[in-house]
From TrEMBL:
EAL domain boundaries: 24-278
UniProt name for this protein: EAL domain-containing protein
Superkingdom to which the source organism belongs: Bacteria
Residues of the full protein shown: 449 to 740 of 742
Annotated TM spans: none
Length: 292
């Protein structure tokens, strides 16, 4: 990049750039300590079955409780973790923490349904995902079938024998597999039949367009049809409005996740929600009331 800039290459060494480099080095070193210091926490966002309207599971979403910075959202530090390779270690922590939480709830008679965790492509390539997951399930005596992994399309692009073996072993151990942000990655669809996938999650960017413009629903509808014809469950993420939900109900989407029902919640609030057992009908009533 500096070479392309040619004679103007000196521009790269401005004070602003120095600051950026320095911030990045600080971020990397703070992240290196964050795991050992126990600064990561998981929040849980409910997923609701459209038929019946009950909570059927949660997505575990990581946050970084960075001293002096408050609760940092994942988009501000996951990319840095992926670049430095630390994502393998943090990803391992996320898997273990989710398994421990499921087991803790289970021991207290609380049933969250399934809990999904996000898996970065790097965990597939450099880490030992299979060992991490099977190890965490065994260590925490996690109930069979409660853990789900959210994979991205890029994880599945390299369809080596090893990928197929890993996914098959995980499935055999009762782990559910879903494809996150479906439709935003490379669209080689062949892997859908080659891999033992259970669910597709329609990305929020497509849900946002539903009920907005005349053909704003085109991609959402295509994913719903594709998923159903392959007998996969389809989950809509980022559902915020009654109009979006109405569309998803009409086209028999299986599950929804989004602010319309609930944002991601800290553990205590998640437990409170599980005790209160709200349904989608409660959310409908709340929004109808708010709309007057
Ligand atoms: P994602 O897996 O697609 O997760 C959904 C994101 O959408 C979450 O953001 C969630 O809070 C947000 N969201 C849910 N419903 C709504 C809604 O109705 N409206 C809007 N505007 N947003 C909604 P969050 O928690 O900030 O996470 C962002 C991304 O960070 C995740 O996207 C995921 O790719 C990544 N991520 C989170 N936790 C982990 C993790 O443990 N490991 C890895 N590798 N990535 C993670
Ligand atoms: Mg996800
Ligand atoms: Mg997603
Ligand atoms: Mg998404």
């Amino acid at each position: 990049q500096a070479k392309q800039a040619g004679r103007n290459a000196f521009r790269f060494f401005t004070p602003a750039m120095n600051l950026q480099v320095r911030r990045r080095l600080e971020l990397d070193s703070a992240l290196r300590n964050a795991v050992t210091r126990g600064e990561f926490v998981l929040h849980y966002q409910p997923k609701v079955q459209l038929a019946g309207g009950h909570v059927v599971g949660f997505e575990a979403l990581v946050r970084w409780n960075r001293p002096g910075h408050g609760l940092v959202p994942p988009n501000d530090f996951i990319p840095a973790l992926e670049e430095s390779g630390l994502i393998t270690e943090v990803g391992r922590w996320v898997i273990a923490a989710a398994c421990e939480q499921i087991s803790d709830w289970s021991a207290r008679g609380i049933d969250p349904g399934h809990v999904s965790v996000n898996v970065s492509p790097r965990q597939f390539v450099t880490g030992d995902l299979e060992r991490d997951v099977l190890g965490a399930l065994a260590n925490h005596h996690t109930p069979l079938g409660a853990l789900e992994l959210e994979l991205t399309e890029s994880s599945l692009m390299t369809s080596t024998e090893a990928t197929i073996a890993t996914l098959t072993h995980l499935k055999d151990a009762g782990v559910q597999l879903s494809i996150d942000d479906f439709g935003t990655g490379y669209s080689s669809l062949a892997y859908l039949r080659r891999f033992p996938i259970d669910k597709l999650k329609i990305d929020r960017s497509f849900i946002r367009e539903v009920a907005r413009s005349s053909d704003g629903d085109a991609i959402t509808l295509a994913i719903l049809r594709l998923g159903h014809s392959l007998e996969l469950e389809v989950v809509a993420e980022g559902v915020e409005t009654a109009a979006q939900l109405q569309y998803l109900r009409r086209h028999e989407c299986d599950q929804m996740q989004g602010y319309y029902f609930s944002p991601p919640l800290p553990v205590r609030e998640t437990e409170r929600l599980l005790l209160a057992r709200p349904t989608l009908a409660d959310a409908d009533a709340r929004w109808a009331l708010a709309a007057g």
